[in-house]
C-alpha cells in the first residue's frame, strides 16, 4: 500500500470503534476525511459536533463529495461489517478505487514503529488500553489504536511522534490481526467465537497460531493457553503461580491490592482502582509488556491506581448504598461469567440483576447453553431480543433459546418495555446492562434513574 500520493480518505463504516480511530489519525495528519455509517451514535456525534468530521447516514453515492471522486488520490477504507451491496461501497468498487480493510491500513501504519499488539477473544480491549495508559504515563510514551474509548483520555487514539512504540488492539474478527507483525504480543484468550467466519474452534486457533508466528519478539499467553507452532516467552496469571503473576490478591475498600511477580523482579503492594478480578489478570499482562518496553517499576506503581478503565468495560455509572449500576460490553459467555463473578466477589451480599442483549443470531445459535450457564450467576435476568448487526435472522433463533435454559427468575422484554420495567422492578442491589449491540443507548436513562455518575 502506497499512501504517498493520498490526499483524501473515505471511511465506509466510520462509526466503528476501530474505524473511527483510523479516521481520527488521518484527520490529525492533515488529510481530507469523511465517511458513512448506518446510524448515528454518541461516538459519531462527537466526531461531527466536536471534531469537525463529515459523516453521512444515507447510503447514497450522490453524497460523496468531489474531493473523494479523484481515485488516484483517495484512499477508501471499509469494514467487513458493511454489506457488500452497500451503494457507497459499490460506487467505489465499481469505479476502480483501491479498497482496503481497516486492518490492512492499520498494519501498514504500524510498520514504522514497534508494535505492541494485544489479541484474544476477550480481555484485549482493557489490556490494550491499560498498556497504552502505562506507557503514556511513563518516560517511554506510545501511540495507540484502541478498541474502546479510554476513560482516562476520552478517545480511542493516542499520537506520540517521539515514541518508538505503537499499541494496537489485534482483532481476530475476519482474520484482521493477520495484517499485523508485532514486536511484542499478548494472547488473552482463544475461546470459540466468530464461528460464522472461522467455521470451527480449531480454525480459530489456527489463526492465532499464525498471528503468533508473525510476532518478531516476546510473546505472552494467559496461563492455560498453549501454542503448537511457536515458542512463547511465558504465561501470565492472577492468583496462581505462572512466569508472571499477581500474588497476594486482596480487596481493599473497592480497590485491588496485589504483588506483581516476574521472572526476575517483584513489585509489591500495587493498587488498582478499576474493578473486576479479571482485570487484575489483564493488568498483569499489561505490566509485563510495559516492563519489556522499558517502563520502570516505580512508573507502574504511580500510574496503575490512576487507570479508570474503558467505556463499556465494567463501567460503573451510578453508585449508592442502595444500588450500583454497571454497564459492560461482554458478548461472549466467558466474558459474562468473568464480569458476574467479579461482581459477586466485590459485592457478595447484594442482589444482582442482569439485563442481557444477545449479539448476533449466529453467536446466539452457537452458544445459547453457555450464555444461560453464565447468566445463571445472577439473581434475576432481563432478556432483550437479539441485536442482529450485520446478520439476517436465523429461523428459530431468538433470546428464548437462552431463556429456556435459565434456572434463575427471568423476564423477556422489548426495548420499548425495557426502561419502564427496570424503573418498576429494580430497586436495590447491583444492576448490570450487558451486550455488544445497542443496549448502551439506555445508559443515560438508567444513570439518571439511579442517581448520577459520581461514583
UniProtKB/TrEMBL annotation:
Q: Which pathway does it operate in?
A: Cell wall biogenesis; peptidoglycan biosynthesis
Task: List its EC numbers.
Answer: 6.3.2.8
What GO cellular component entries does it have? cytoplasm
Q: Which GO terms describe its biological process?
A: cell division; cell wall organization; peptidoglycan biosynthetic process; regulation of cell shape
Membrane-spanning residues: 6-26
> What reaction does this catalyse?
UDP-N-acetyl-alpha-D-muramate + L-alanine + ATP = UDP-N-acetyl-alpha-D-muramoyl-L-alanine + ADP + phosphate + H(+)
Domain Mur ligase C-terminal, residue spans:
312-409
Q: Which domain of life does this protein belong to?
A: Bacteria
Keywords for this entry? ATP-binding, Cell cycle, Cell division, Cell shape, Cell wall biogenesis/degradation, Cytoplasm, Ligase, Membrane, Nucleotide-binding, Peptidoglycan synthesis, Transmembrane, Transmembrane helix
User: Pfam families this protein is in?
Assistant: Mur_ligase, Mur_ligase_C, Mur_ligase_M
Q: Which residues form the Mur ligase central domain?
A: 118-290
Q: InterPro entries this protein is in?
A: Mur-like_cat_sf (IPR036565), Mur_ligase_C (IPR004101), Mur_ligase_C_dom_sf (IPR036615), Mur_ligase_cen (IPR013221), Mur_ligase_N (IPR000713), MurCDEF_pg_biosynth (IPR050061), UDP-N-AcMur_Ala_ligase_MurC (IPR005758)
Q: Which family does it belong to?
A: Belongs to the MurCDEF family.
Q: What does this protein do?
A: Cell wall formation.
Recorded hits in HAMAP family, A to Z, give: MurC
Q: What is this protein called?
A: UDP-N-acetylmuramate--L-alanine ligase
| Record organism | Butyricimonas faecihominis
- The UniProt gene name for this protein comes to murC
